Amino acid sequence: MRSRFAPDWRLTVRMLTVVFLLGLVFVAFVAVLIALLKSVVVVVVIAVGVLAAQYWFSDRIALFAMRAHEVTPQEQPELHGAVDRLCALADMPKPQVAVSDMDLPNAFATGRNADHAVICVTTGLLRRLEPGELDGVLAHELSHVAHRDVAVITVASFLGVLAGLVVRFAFYSQLFGRDSRDQNTALLLTAVMAVSVVVYGLSFLLIRALSRYRELAADRSAAELTGRPSDLASALVKVSGTIARIPTEDLRTARALNAFFFSPALKEGSALATVFSTHPSLQRRLDALAEISAGMGLRA
After folding, report:
1. What is the DSSP letter of 280?
2. What is the chain's alpha carbon radius of gyration, rounded to the nearest angstrom?
């Protein structure tokens, strides 16, 4: 999609690389499964159906999961006004706008393309942020739409879903299968589970690495579009500092969409935990925004 968001070739290369590597892993995975267990074709068909539903209806699924609903300009004039200004500034189509009635301050973008995109914010975010900070968050989410990385993450997640289904299939076949006492069958199903676990681990790490970079890319694009990196940094600090005070029920509801959020609905863990995180650390994002701010000052 053409827009005034600067093309991010580093993000594009990373997305293509991850999709290519996952494609190779997927082909090898299916070949091994067919060789080991012919009946796994049923699982593959089910997984493809899950992917198709996730891809075509990702916006509806996400809104349902967050108990969100689309709002009109009459219902949320300030929110729509901010999205209108940013879309005009970015020269891109306006996505649907939705609000989730949750105290958790956060936002996300979803949808398979610009024509079927939705930007959703929570009432907790609207209550806590100043207009400039809200602009930074909305610009961040619009960047995800413009760069199509939401659709890429959705498709890339398919291999992990497939591997997880196969692990369950093999596990329950061992427990309840007619031939569960047959040693050859048990070894076969154990091999299937082992291959599936390895594939799931590889896809998990590749997707997490892409997810962390795309958040930094969206921060950079939002800061450049609005020209106010400090507002985005302030929004990050506010949102991250509020997580500990959010009701547990809201956090449980939100964690299923953690990879798509502006800020993770989780407390930051150890340095090792960042390898498995969907987002860079708060300090990493603030440092990157400080560099952008310094660069803008030099250019000025």
Report:
1. -
2. 21
- The structure tokens listed for 152 are 């890429």
What residues are labeled active site?
Answer: 141
CB atoms within 10 A of CB 236: 21
Average pLDDT for residues 261-265, to the nearest whole number? 86
Picking from 102-111, 119-128, 279-288, 290-299, which range would have the lowest pLDDT averaged per residue? 290-299
Pairing of strands 118-122, 96-100: parallel
Task: Tell whether residue 133 is among the known ligand binding residues.
Answer: no
Look at 35-44, 70-79, 289-298 and tell me which has the smallest mean pLDDT.
Answer: 35-44
Q: Nearest 5°: CA angle at 68, between 99 and 247?
A: 90
Helix, strand, coil shares, percent, the chain, to 5: 75, 5, 20
Q: Which pLDDT score is estimated for 151? A: 77
pLDDT at res. 288: 95
Tell whether 279 is in a known binding site: no
d(CA 170, CA 165): 9
Flag whether 144 is marked binding.
yes
CA 267/CA 168 separation, integer angstroms: 29
